Amino acid sequence: MVGLSACLCYPPGVVSRHQPPARLLAPAEFSVPKTDSLHPMNQFEYRDGELYCENVRIADLVKQHGTPLWVYSQSKLLQEYQAIRDAFAAVKPVICYSVKANSNLSLLKLLNEAGSSFDVVSGGELFRVKEAGADTTRVVFAGVGKTNAEIEQALLNNILMFNVESEAELESIARVAAKLKRVAPLALRLNPDIDAKTHAKTTTGKKGNKFGMDIEKHNALAAKVLADPNLELRGIHMHLGSPINTTDPYEQAAKKALDVVTELRRQGHQTNWINLGGGFGLNYRGTEAPPASAYADVIIPYIQKAECRLALEPGRSIVGNAAVLISQVIYTKREGGKLFIIQDAAMNDLVRPAMYDSFHSIWPVAPSVPVPKDFEAEVPGCEPADVVGPICESGDYLAKQRWLPAVKTGDLMCTYSAGAYGTAMSSNYNSRPRGAEILVNGSTSRIIRRRETYEDLIAAEKV
Ligand SMILES: Cc1ncc(COP(=O)(O)O)c(C=O)c1O
Ligand SMILES: N[C@@H](CCCC[NH3+])C(=O)O
């Protein structure tokens, strides 16, 4: 079924990270049937048996830019931002896109122009959003280890508020604010001990996680803030984990926020912000994530009752399905009773499967079998394969035992839902240069991050 004639060949014009291709330009070995199947999750659509992003043919992008290649749909990015904004319109939220999900400058600029604000967790992210032209007075700053330098940088940029995670951090903020003769705006991050049922490595709102503080500590620190002229308690912050595919944890959190705000006001604080963090689900498989309106339905009543401003920090749900990762098959091999598809995207590009056993749909760019409705099911005309990268680790895979059509050396593969925590968590492991990032808008495309070169790998080491 699968082309095992592992000729080391590349389709016409394809540039690979593996330099130089040993032999070039083998003719296509099978013809592609026509299919108009639409991937259920996003703007990446098969037309006449070939994958497009908006009106741009993916294979054409590969001819120009090589693989691995990140391809973004501008309309998908903005559509998902607007869906959240519209769902919460009744309370006019400040949507602070979570920069950690994908910090590409061009995407930040687009979101900034669309009216988004930003959630940052480092001085580097604050630097990025400034470069993108953001109004820093709408930026929130989270993270358990803010340094004095980062606190100073944030205060000088008049951020909306710090999400404070510990007593020691509060003391640092107070010291730096006093030195600068400023009043530091903040929210205390409450760990509400709510089980959001995420992967163990991505839960953040359960007792025992390193994030935030319990309600007793919260109340004790709130009293300290009240007594310090350099501190101002603007709100309460919670972030429960990611991704959260049910709305119930948000309802519990919103209810808790209402109770806390009521108590803080009773104590004399002017608290009028509720920040419920990010974590909204993403359709990696099909339709597992509730729409933004479902989260809004359970959150809005509590915000209205509290008469508070709402801040949200969504990252994944905005950018996740706005990008795919395109790779090229290098070899196929059968070993130990399994079929392996070895392609040129690896755990250094997309670490999520290795790190969390995450599921990403994968299908060829020009498949011999129409794209299935269910990527986890047995598909007629296909056989199970492990899709792996060239890195020297057994954990280097993008998918395991996935039913896939026949592919051969030089074929292009598409890994879906790659926009969030893909490039953001990528590395140069095994001295692999990162691939280019391309933004598609209708029938046009532009490079938003160039492919790295071997020289880039050693540039910072030339001291
Ligand atoms: C404090 C905080 N806010 C926002 C986010 C963004 O989460 P997501 O990308 O799932 O929306 C995270 C990451 O989980 C986070 O830790
Ligand atoms: N990086 C994780 C989620 C953690 C988000 C940061 N708090 C992912 O790839 O799904």
Automatic annotation (TrEMBL):
Q: Amino-acid biosynthesis as a keyword?
A: yes
Q: Which GO terms describe its biological process?
A: lysine biosynthetic process via diaminopimelate
Q: Which domain of life is it from?
A: Bacteria
Q: Where does pyridoxal 5'-phosphate bind?
A: G279, E313, P314, G315, R316, Y421
Enzymatic reactions: meso-2,6-diaminopimelate + H(+) = L-lysine + CO2
Pathway field: Amino-acid biosynthesis; L-lysine biosynthesis via DAP pathway; L-lysine from DL-2,6-diaminopimelate: step 1/1
Q: Residues that bind substrate, according to the entry?
A: R316, R352, Y356, E393, Y421
**Sequence ranges assigned to domain Orn/DAP/Arg decarboxylase 2 N-terminal in this UniProt record:** 76-319
Which SUPFAM superfamilies does the record match to this protein? Alanine racemase C-terminal domain-like, PLP-binding barrel
Keyword field: Amino-acid biosynthesis, Decarboxylase, Lyase, Lysine biosynthesis, Pyridoxal phosphate
First-tier enzyme category under EC = lyase
Output one GO MF annotation: pyridoxal phosphate binding
Q: Name one Pfam family in it.
A: Orn_Arg_deC_N
Metal-binding is among the record's keywords: no
For this protein, the Enzyme Commission number is: 4.1.1.20
Which cofactors does the annotated protein need, by name?
pyridoxal 5'-phosphate
Q: Which residues form the active site?
A: C392 (proton donor)
N6-(pyridoxal phosphate)lysine found at: K100
Residue ranges spanning the membrane: these are: none
Q: Known InterPro entries for this protein?
A: Ala_racemase/Decarboxylase_C, DAP_deCOOHase_LysA, De-COase2_N, Orn/DAP/Arg_de-COase, PLP-binding_barrel
Q: Which family does it belong to?
A: Belongs to the Orn/Lys/Arg decarboxylase class-II family. LysA subfamily.
Primary role: Specifically catalyzes the decarboxylation of meso-diaminopimelate (meso-DAP) to L-lysine.
The subunit structure is: Homodimer.
Which HAMAP family does the annotation name?
LysA (MF_02120)
Q: What is this protein called?
A: Diaminopimelate decarboxylase
Species this chain originates from? Planctomicrobium piriforme
